[in-house]
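Figure S4 source data
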Amino acid sequence: MKILGICSSPRLEGNTYYYLNTVLSEVEKLGAEIELIQLSGKNISGCRGCYGCVEAKKCVIEDDFQEVFDKIVKADGLLLASPVYHSCITPELKCVLDRTGFSGRWAKNEMKETKSSYEWKEGVLSGKVLAPITVARRAGQNFAFAEILLWAAGNDCIIVGNTYWNMGVAGKGGAFNAQDDEEGIGIMKRLAVNMVDVIRKLNK
């Protein structure tokens, strides 16, 4: 069982990193292999809508996305973590999600004529167990959380539930203070249990 965490905060080892690392530490204790990728500092541009992936069966833009995409494909579980910027996920994560979803769909499907209907086959994300994590000082969580959920639902992922939404409250005045959010930390630990449990049940 391999679980990949993607931290999309531009700030290294900030609040978003703290919550994500809390989940990863717990799933590791439960026997999963873990990996954490930080998008900060990586060169990943947005999707150009060039449709080059239709023929190439992969994204044709050459940058750091390919390394991230390969790790996504190999993972059984995905934890997508983002701070909230004006009620949205970060541009860094949006670039990864757009390019992964688009090229991942065409990796296993063929484009049809305009008048033809699609019967989509599985994509590279099909069956991957996924959970979002969002972090805000006070508000805007729901929209950012929903962005990730909508992406997952449209890419054939299995979404893990929890006893509450996987949201952390931290960062007043720019502070790194996620460790003070006891309720949020408890939510993350419960998420770890649920993610491992779902993956194990699927693999029986």
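Figure S5 source data
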Amino acid sequence: MWFRILVLALGTFALGTDGFVIAGILPDIAHQLNISVDLAGQLVTVFSLTYALGSPMLAALAGNIPRRRLLLMSLAFFVAANLLAAVATSFAVLLVARILAAGGAALYTPTAAAAAASLVPAEKRGRALSLVTAGMTLSLVLGVPLGIFIGSQFNWQMTFVLIAVLSAIAFVGVLMLFPTIANPPTVALRTRLALLRRPALLLTLLTTTFGMIGAFTVYTYLGPLLQQITHLNGAGISGMFLLFGLASMLGNVIGGYSADRWGTVRTVVLGVLLLGLALFMLPFAATLFLGAALAIAVWGVAGWMLTPPQQSRLIAQAPDVPGVVLSLNGSAIYLGSATGAALGGVVLHFAPIAALGWVGSAWELIALGAVLWSAYLVSKASQRSAQEKCVVGAVCPAQEIESTSVA
């Protein structure tokens, strides 16, 4: 049972490596294809935008396909897309490959989570889901630095070959080991989008989007930034991405603990403030190796400590459809990364590369406004709900209403 879930985690590891590694090999892609770095950065934009828009639509369209078959289809699609990227000799072909890869990823990720949940008893479901998610987190620590190192030692095409091989192994594992898996109830696209009519929930999702815009305005071009300002080579850039991955894992743990201990809103506010500060200071700090390392470490911790409390806030606001609201959060993440990559390209076209950090930091301030506004709306709704429960003659202390949690 757990070995099967490890196979699913290998798939998310490959997907995570594919999604994040582009930032590290961007200078090599731009150089070999004879295009500007800001144009090459749009590979991240099209991947993320395809995932953000395609995930809810593909989930609705593929609702009746057996889960095992859907896992195989999505992994086969993903392998083919990365092999196409590996043989691409033009930007146009590589762009098509990234769109196809995003489609495979958008199908695989929610399907793998649903499959993992169905393979274990209810009391072990949380561990199964965390193991599948760990594949994505581990990709930041191992997959991305390894992909960047391979790209620097051979060429960037070999990075996509690595991803294709990992995905193919996951495909064989699903083919050989997985039984038929019952389909979960299908949720119509209209039902998914109806949740966006809730103002507090929409603002919570926008917090995710705005935060990702700020982060990916810089992350997409972190490789070129470290190359130009810190004067690092391929191995040095790979080491910085390894540091970012390790800090991200620590941030994820801190975020979960802090959300339980001090509340989700306080955790998100702290994370956004630290992230904004790290992005703002990065262009100044990156002139020194240790300064760049410190800024990237704070960025990794702050950025990834946002995920657990954001997910908790969303589930608390829509406890009847947790899977749907978390899939919307996934779309919000990729919509933000697509917008950030595009915005970073515009900044590079008109301003020096150091401006990326300042623009990214400004978006974190916008995210801070969104989280505070959403917390205010949730607080007001909680107070109204508490008042409505009071009936004539019943005790309804004012302090009970005032102490209602906004988390």
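The chain is about 85% helix and 0% strand. The CA atoms of residues 78 and 101 lie 5 Å apart.
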